[in-house]
Structure formats: C-alpha cells, structure tokens
Model the fold of this input.
Amino acid sequence: MRELKILKGANSYAENIQGKANEPITVAGLLDRARYALKFNDIDYPLEAIYDRLEENAPRIGVIGGSLDHPAHVVDWDTVLKAAYAIWKKGGVPFYFSIPVVCDGTAQSNMGMCYSLQSRNAVAAMIVNQMEGQSYHGAFVIQGCDKTPMGVLSGLAALDMARQRRGDAPVFATFAPAHVLKGGEIPQSLRAELEDAAVRAEKMDKPHFAEDIRGTAAFILQCASDQAFKGIFDRMTQEGVITELEKKRFLKYLAVNTCDGKGGICAFNGTGNSSRHAMSAFGMVHPSLELLTEPPTQAQIDVAVEALLGYCNDPDYSVASVMKANIENCVRVFSATGGSTNLVMHLIAAMTYAGVRFSLSDLETIIDAHPIPDLFDYSLTEGRDIFALAQQCCDGQIRGMETVLYELQQNGVPVHLDAPTAAGTTWRERFSDARNLAASGVTENPVILSKPRRSYSGIDVLRGNFFETAVVKISGMKAEQIEAFDEKAHFGLYFENEEEATDALLNPHILNSLRDRQAFSHENLKALACFNAPGFEAERLSYGELFDAMVRERVLKMIIFISGQGPAAFGMPEQFSPTQYINHNADLNPLVVLMSDGRYSGVSYGAAIGHATPEAAHGGGMLYLRTGDLFLLQLKKRRVTLIDPSALRRGSAVPLEERLSETRSALGEERLRRILERRRRISPTNLLTGAADASLGVAPSAVVESADETFDFKG
Done:
C-alpha cells in the first residue's frame, strides 16, 4: 500500500489532540461494519494506525450518503461500506456522514414542495459545515435524486473556493450515482379494470376520459403517472363514471406497484437523472460508476477510489476547477439530452457557489453559440427510458455521457476535450479508447442517437414586455405542439396560486364554465378567432356558438398564469400537478399553455413556461394580470407579449403600452398582501427571502455577492 498525504496547507489534526482522540473510533466503527458486511480479512485498522494516518495528513475522505427515507438511498449502506474499505486499503482515512434528502415526488402537492428548493441551499451549507467541522479533505458522494446532487456539488465547490482563498489544500471529490430504478408495471388485473372504466366512459358519451386513461396507461408506471391518473380519476368521480371507492382502489394498487424494492433513481428523465447526466458531464463521475442498473460492485468502487486518491493533490482536479473547465460540456449535454428545467437554476447556482458570476444569460450564451441538436430518443411508452439506457451502458454497448459528448462533437458542437474528469484523466484521454464510444454501438432501440431527431433541444430563454426572463423546456414539446401555439394570440386565465389553478383544472366542466360565464369579451373572442384562423366565420355566431366552435377547431388558445409561486413568495414549488392535469386532459391539452413564476418538475413536458422574473412578490408584471388579458406567444422568437385588445380587434398584435403597475396598482397591492399572508404558512427557518431570483439560480444572496470571477466563455 502506498503512503499518501495531503501536501498543501495546514494539517488540522497534527496539533489537535482532541481530533485524534475523538475520530479514530468513528473510523474503526465504520470499518468494523464493513468487515462484518463484506467479510474481508486483508486489512487491519488498529486505533494506533488510524491515529498515525491522521497525524501524517493522509487524505481524510467523507463518504457522503443520503437519508434512507428517500428511494435513491435505500441501499446506501452497501456502497458506503465498500467505499470505506477501498479508501482505507488505498491509504486514505474514511469517514461517513449523511444528509437529509427531500423526495420531490413525496413532497408534491403539499407544503413539502415549499421547502424542496430551499433544501438545495441547505444541503450546500450542511456539506460545508460538516466538511469544515471535521476537516475532511475530499468526498466520495453517493449521488441521489432531485436537486440534492447539485446541492452537494455546490457545497463542495464553495468549500474548495474558501480553502483555496486561505491557501489551504483544494477539495477533491468523486460522485457515485445511485443505480437506476426500473419503472413499475400496471398489474394485468388492474389494467383490465381501467379498460372497463374507459369503456364505461365511452358508453356514457364521455370518450375523453377513455382517451385520457388509455394514453396514461401507455406510460411506464411511475409516481408521475400516478399523479396523472389521480387527476383523471378525480374528474371521472365528479362525473359519476367511477365511484370514490373505485378511485381509491385504483390509486392504491397503482402506488404499491410503482417502485422496485431495491430503490434507486426513477427511470424517467426528470431532475434526478438530469442531475446524473449533468454530474457526469461536469466530469465528476468515474465511468465505472456512471449508469448502473444495480448498486456498484467492489471492483467498480475500487477503480473510482484509486483515481480519486490519485488526483487528491492536483489543483486542476479540485471540485471548482473541474466544474469551471466542464461547464460548457455540461450545458451542451444537458441540452442534447432534454434535461429538467430545474437544472437551469441548479447549474447557475452551482457555478455561483464555485465563485463565478454566472447567470441565465451566460447559460443562454453557451446554448446559442452552437445550435445543440436533440440526440436523446427517450420515451416512457416505447421502452427507451433511463433504465433501458443504463442497461445499454452496463452491457458495454455505449458509454453514457461520453457517448453523448462524442456524438455532439461528431455533429459539429464544440466539446472541451482537455477538461479534467474524475477518472483522473481528461476527456481526450478517455476518448483515446474508442471502444463502444459511438451511439451506433446500440442497434436495437437506442436512446442516444448519432443522427439527431431534430436540430434543437434543451431549454429556451423567453423575454417579454411584462417580465424580464422565463424558460421553456423546448425539448419537452413536440414540433406540432410548438406550431399549434406559435404566433397565436392567447387569452390569459389568471390564478393567484397553485391551489386555485388545481381546483379549476380538476373541474371536468372548466371550458363550459368559461363559456357560460363569458370569461372573455365577445369582441375580443371574435378578434382572437380571426387572428388565429384568418377566414374563421365569427361574426354570425353567438357567444356560446363561437366559443364551442373555437374549442372544437382548436382556435381558442389560453395561457394559464399561476402567480405567487416564486422563491420569495412561496419557496418556488414545482407546478407539477397542473402540468399533469393539462397534459392528461385531451380537451385542454391542445388549447392551453401554462406560465408561472414557480418551477416545474423535471418530468414535466408540454407547453409550460416557468421561472418568470421578477416574480410577483417582487412586483413582477404577473402580479397585475387579469383573466381576459391578451397575449401573443412567439415560441420560435422566444417572446411572450402582452398585447393591446383594441389593436387585436383591428387585426394586429401590438404590445400594450399601458403601465399596469400604475393603472392596476390597487389590484397589485391587494394581491401582494395576500402573497405575504400566504407565505406565513411556511416556517420562517426555511424562507427563500434571502436568495437571488431564478435568473441567478436562487442562490443565497451572500453566495452571489462573493462570486468575483468572470465567466470565461470558451465557445
């Protein structure tokens, strides 16, 4: 065994007898547990030997796990013990600590969602606290799900920068993502009952319910599809198609058949797997651990730990250095794989924690510099989920994000090959072994493509005359959906919060209700019809006839605004339920775009615009909107414009020049009062009032203020 020591900076244990008195038993206890579980007999670790390694400044490595109440961390202990064994055997000193992990699936549709984003910043702070308090040099991170991996990365990057500023040793790390959780299956008996319910709906002249059930049943079973089913069942119960008892039974047996007992990260390409892809593209994952269908073996962990200890003294391989070298690679992989909208904020925040002044505009610069094609033929209905991708990688057919980077390069997108990675080598060195590097290694049902599906992917940054920035997951919209909404006039349908919006979307008669109460003026309805469908016969029809005809011909377009959901207002919860209730409603889906100052689940898809800044709580334009306002949506031009109704009635879409903050100031003040009152439902310990807005990643203000490096765009 080689003798290792950290060469730079002070050794906090050299003169600290208390540390050397306290910590050897924690190391020995961890290795005792590993010996019992792994049954090894090739290493010894007496307290004296642990003391000596601490005295000599051997690399102290925190093995970081997550809480066992999150599915991604169900089998953490197996990986923890293998990592601890490898670290000690190869000359380091292993420690273990875990962090709480909020499951966004569990937190959906309840107050937990108001704490979810804040938990990312809390995790970053906890990582710094524990690593500094115990004086760990580096980390072996068992990467979980949702926003937590980026929280861990952010904390390690911030600590790396702090230590480098004071002349201490840089922080080094490697990430071991949890394996991919295979999607569930609807039991055949339940599938037959659902089909019976669909047939029943057809016989009751409610065929839209049958379409919704069959469409949703085509997806792999996952917690996200369970939520979609719930919305369908709620509407069917109201209409008397199924009973409340049937609904409860259906939901019960969907739930208990969703997750495999081994745990892991869900098979859909949500924030969990987007974080996995991003961490790999950041260079932080050893290729032996990248995309697995089972927890890692000892051999896979051994090679990752060997590499980790190999670069523990190299400042070019510190966490912040690796991130800065790889950010453009990461953004391009994120775009090419159609990653979660949430990752937009998390990437911005992570770079800010790494000391770089980085914003949504910088991310947009990377995306726009070279068009990024869609190289990810991912599907939850055709057997191409992330579990299938992991199988292809485990079978040695392709190499995960290495293959994506390779195919980006083959399609003319720059890849920075000399950036360092957790393999202890650069991408160029990794690419020198070309075996199974190309996407063509998969001949049956490939997820990663060599020939793009289309020329664009990822997210688009939108701007408008009533907000500064917003984002839309363009990779989550089909081409025909983009065409259906692009350059069309839309009525606004305004809700002050998600609860109001959800209640409306679960109303099976929402369109009839809008028609019967004449939610939009008749003159504006005719104007919108003629603008969206020139030649539409609107004049001769009554209000009800015109409304129904516009719905039937899909000429009616609406933007549902959900306001008061931003970071300062309500913790920026995901608007997942509303997106599911729209996407899995055959009547609404062709007519409706969703826009919010909140965010969306990583698995969300369809016409959903989020992260609007400034948020309503900060006086953003959304605070002053009303149902019936008119908007021009230009997805290809990346704009949403509040337009003048009188001009639309003359046949043209002209930006509204009225200053709503002045003409509707009383309305804004009353809404702001309700926003502040509603915020009191969140514990003050977890408010995001001290954070930046979404365009700066909702990073803590102190972190934003301390970021003093200019982003070095390489092109």
